[in-house]
# Entry
Amino acid sequence: HATEAPAPEWQLTGRVVSSKGEGLPGVTVALKGTTRGVTTGVDGSFALSVPETAGTLVFSFVGFQTVERPFNGTQSFDITLQDDTKALEEVVVVGYGTQKRSDVTGAIATLDATKLEERPITRVDQALVGQLAGVQVQQNTGLPGRGFNIQVRGNGSITANNQPLYVIDGFPLEGTSPNGNGNFATGSPLDNINPNDIQSIEVLKDAAAAAIYGSRAANGVILVTTKRGKTGKPQISFNTYAGISQQANRLDLLSPEEWVTRSTQIINSAWVRSGTGRTADQTTAQRMAILNRTTIDPALMIDDRWLDPNHEGLAYIDWQDEIFRTGKVQNYQVSASGATNNVNYFLSGNYTNQQGIVIGVDYKRYSGRANVEVKASDKLKFGLNMTPTYSVSRDPGVEGKDNLAQKFITMVPVAEASAGIYSNYGENDRYLWAGSSISPVGELQNRQQRTTTFRSLSSMYGEYELVRHLRARVSVNLDNTDARSKSYIPNSKLVGSGATGTYSGYRKQAFVNENTLTYANVIGDKHDISALAGYSYNFFKTETDKLKSSGGFVNSAVTTLNGATNITGTADNGTSETQNVLISYFGRLQYAYMGKYLLTASVRRDGSSRFGSERRWGVFPAASVGWRISQENFMQNVTPVSDLKLRGSFGMSGNNGIGDYSSVPTLGIYNYSFGGAVASGQAPNKAPNAQLQWEKSRTFDVGLDLGLIKNRVYASLDYYTKTSKDLLLNVPRVSASGYESQLVNIGEVQNRGWEVELKTRNLASGGFEWNTSLNFAHNQNEVKHLGPGDATIEIPSPYGASSTLLMVGQPMYSFYAIKQTGILTQADVDGGAPVIQGETVGDPKYLDANGDGVITDQDRVIIGRPSPKYTWGVTNTFSYKGFDLSVLVQGQNGGQLYSLIGRAIDNSGMGYNQNVLGTQRDRWISPEQPGAGLRGKANINFSPLKSDSWLYSTNYVRVRNITLGYNLGNVISKRVAQGARVYFSMENFFGHDNYTGGYNVDAVNSDTGGGGFSVGTDYGGLPLTKSMTLGLNVTF
Amino acid sequence: CEDLNQAPLSSGSVPTFYKSADDFNQGLNAAYNSLRAWPDRTLTMSETRSDNIYGVSAQGIRTWEPINNFSLGVVANEYPADAWSADYLAIYRANILLDQLEQNGTVLTDATRKGFDAQARFLRAFFYFDLVRYFGKVPLVDKPLEPQEVAKIGRTPVADLYTLIINDLQTAAANLPASYATTDVGRATSGAAKSLLALVYMTRSGSTYGSVQGPGLGTNDYATALTLLNDVINGGQYQLITAAGTSPNAYANVFSYTNENNREVIFDVQYISGGVGLGASYPSILVTNNYFTSIGVGTTFGTGDELRPASNSLLNSYGTGDLRKAVNFQVGYTAGTAVETRAAFKKYINGTLRGTTRTDWPINFIVLRYADVLLLKAECLLRTGDQAGALALVNQIRRRAYGLAITTPSTVADLTSLTLDQLLEERRREFAGEGIRWHDLVRSGRAVDVMNAWVVADDASNRIRKPLTANDVLYPVPQQELAASSYSYEQNPGYN
# Structure
């Protein structure tokens, strides 16, 4: 071509602004039908030369409605782009994509997480408490930084995993159930995730929504979407809060004076019984003379100093006052975000520090995030999400059986004045009447137990439009967690020789590669079709290691294991590895006709290395339909109804949450020694089952979405049944087989219930606005089938007879114990009332359920169920001028808790050398002083059985959060900051429950199961934390 | 997909394991491993059940109390449940090995295979005998079977169980060596098999208790037992320890930490300390921390159970000058300000040579010793009318107990005549704390009378169920086994 003179051109200029009048940078200004175009500058202005031909300019920008303007010569334009509200409001994240809210046919609950910045919470799971119908969130521990137990629509699995699948920005991460001790042994997928980085959380509750995740979806799927940059000016945000935290409640224990009274009774009674002619009014000196001894026997003699009104020489101690403290909490977050047509970014850094409410407990987290997406061309984009995080948590071993919480609760409230709160610690001897308990204050202050966790969650993806409407996406994801725990426990005399130490940790890796093809098109303005096909490869590996000291430490100065006397032994020391592979193919079709008739169908085929070779692959189909009645012509005149949709769905999903090698007949190490030398031994350690396969879950769901008065009232109702079968169950086997249990696919559990979500704008006038959001859910759990012959399974307990069982027709893990009906009177005894061998007047009276005339474990009956029947949450928000107030109240009803800490501290059989609950104050003392009729006399002469005395209701109402905020926008110049807000927030400050046997109704810290079942219970858990914080959000 | 075939990374698996002599040996060692918890069980299930211990705790309710006080709640108690399941786990390990020897044993030499087979049979018989003595009828399982198949096997009559036990022990006695090289000391020997077989015959010959189907069938096998015992005695492999060595006296020297594997030991459970998980816990279970404190080792042992003190009747049984009393018990001690007046079993405790924790003692537990063989022979002689022969054997034991030469008659130590009750009482003194007493009472037919008389005399706190009956000779079938069998196992009488 020869060079031609440039054709004469028209100059088109102008400025593009938003509806608020602010200049919009980055808007594409294109000449229609050509590739010619420019983008607007920082203030929204543009200039474009075009050939001298009449044409049309197209102004387009993500999130705004596109505008077209004709021209016929050099011209200047003033363009205002309107928000594309349709696009902004109505998209929800579903598995492998998004869907218009109006087209959703499954049961999906959404939490807008942007408000989380205004609450002093440190975890994403904490944010879910009380927010979504059918999503039960339990805080099993009072320790900061620990994972919560989340159940979607009840528990459908008896022994396998019951936690939902988490998908963070498209990266599926398997959760594992917390163990019976309430801990996530190798972490929770939500560990170290900064809640301030979260944009929204979607919970896929029914199989139609979740089945695209196939063999891992039976417990629901939680999709977490992190923040992205917003188009417009780059935003720099600074969020901070600081405040204090305290224990939310106290236990009513005997005061020192009351303990003295009770102990005196026990000791005198033992003295009187110990021989003829011995009376309670004999002094300690007289008793020593009678026994011809020069030292005090605390079982038979009291401390004379108790009689002194000033108890000279003794310290009276309230251990709860000594253990608990006011902790400080603080949090800082800086983020920068923005978007142009080519790059979208969100960067943040966060530091949070929670000082625990108990001496020696705290949690710190440092986290960063970079979400960057680059649009390389109209067809190609790629992105990278990186989240490096680091946390440090310290816990001296507070919760659970024989740990420090149990010890400070049961510790005698009296000590030698010389020892005080350091009784039986360091140089101090124990108090003669105080059993062997060691000062919990000394322990908390001197134990060093620390876990550091470095976790890095990274995803990289590319997306390419192969042809119009058809996009291919490839993602590579890696989640790597490295956790290290160090523990050094000095002995009570603080000498190195009695100390124990461990150094342990784990590395957990999840590698996921996903490849999808998506087709989306609207044909003829009526047929909205989208289709998805995909393949994914998942590899999970966990490595653990542990080193433990033996024979104490050389001295107490060096607390790392090089200071240990020895590190030997195969039992505690060593490393282990476990891995599994999951390969999946999946597809989905979504179709909407004129936005009225909706259909979604999906199928996934999963293969997992966890199952026997014959049963390795499973197929999980699902379908759902919807009818948007409000779009029908006949509804157009029914103005009060702004939205009405009927939904129905059916689908299958699975649960593969068992160990990696459960189908393999593995060998365990069982060594012996001959002639003083170790002799290695190996033998099978579990009954194999080559037929082992997934648990299958079948969900049926019908729902109704209703919007009234321009959606000022919006309600969503669902009814569902979820039937889980082929449950992985450790069926008890006769021990004569060599195994006490065997893992088989047997059993069936059904969860059925209904859910209501209601959002209302109650008032909006004169600058005052009041909104309410309410969720209410009912779930009924029922065991339908068990092992051979549907035989009831009593879960073995390490503490006497089983108090938990699985029985057809009852909720899972129902409680089972004898029932107390009162206190035995003389008339009862004379009348031959059934008693436990050895019981007399003043001991508890029990129900003789089997009518055989004696009380034994055969008289156990079902007394309760662990899961609540109803869970609910209400959030009210008010705003007036610059002020806003939000109040979240939540609760649950209809469940019970069988508390072993209650049994340990509220048991008449407990001796003088420990403290007991306040309920023992009102025990039976004599026929004239019968007490409250609940607790028998202090000196017992029978072996107590597990009874309903330690069954508590888990009903509670809790004001989880109150936040009062004030917008400083009116005070601070826009030039200084775009927005600024201060707020005051109270977490967990008010509430009520009936759990008197411990601190926290949801506490789980000790496994009392056996035979392959884990039954978590409270054996000394900390109270929840209540906190008061002051916060500031500033956006520049 | 190849990726879906994942083998365990940190453990072996059955199909690929039994390939060499060492593999089979490891399978056998795992069966021996089942012995490790046996002494603890026997001290609870036999010693604590008997009149040797008055274990009423002053504070709190301990899990072993239903054993001691004959509560009917023992049906759900962990100890009988553990005895049942642990014995069967041991039997299963023996069965697995015997099965693998049959299937894949051709890789072994004939001698090796026979040796492994004989040891596995000894262990299988040992644990079946344990089951029979505590529970009477139990299901007979002699090869590895699917758990569902085993559930169909009911409680097998005691006589049939004896057939298996006797067959196994006869094979073992024929094929086991008389002794081992130092590195294998602790494995079953022919002497151990013969001694155990004699005890089995004598137990089978023991009293029946009416309709209770216990271990005694009254079969009168004393002559057969006597032959076996004489074999052991005449074999010259064993002898009574008569030298004090580094211990205060010869009796103490039998249990000395520095005299393990001595010539009085016929079969023992072996332990080593050092925190490798192979130490013994049984020395700790009858005593408290305060006892450890009193001997100056308390601070490193953590919290423990309460004292299970020796009963007054046991303590009073020892005559003046009987050295065994001071070896077996510490009567009264102080730990700081705490004063204990009751007697602690200290027989197996050496504070100086202790392990790293209360479950890491290095001391072996003697299951069968030569003194037992001598007294069992005395019992056979007495049962068959040879009182003088029996008396001579008993007096040997008594003379050692009094620190005298065992062959020299003594006016202090010697008995002049011997009844079965006297022999029983002598065994009680000699084997105190060795888990033998309850079985002796049951075998002799005296269990109900002796226990009831003892309860009247010693139960000061009135905690023991009374009166005891023949039903109490057996433990109940544990609740969890009844449930696992879908209640197809019938319960022993008196526990329904």
Observations:
- DSSP finds 20 helices and four strands in chain B.
- The first strand of chain B starts at residue 265 and ends at 269.
- Chain B touches chain A through 104 residues (CB under 8 Å).
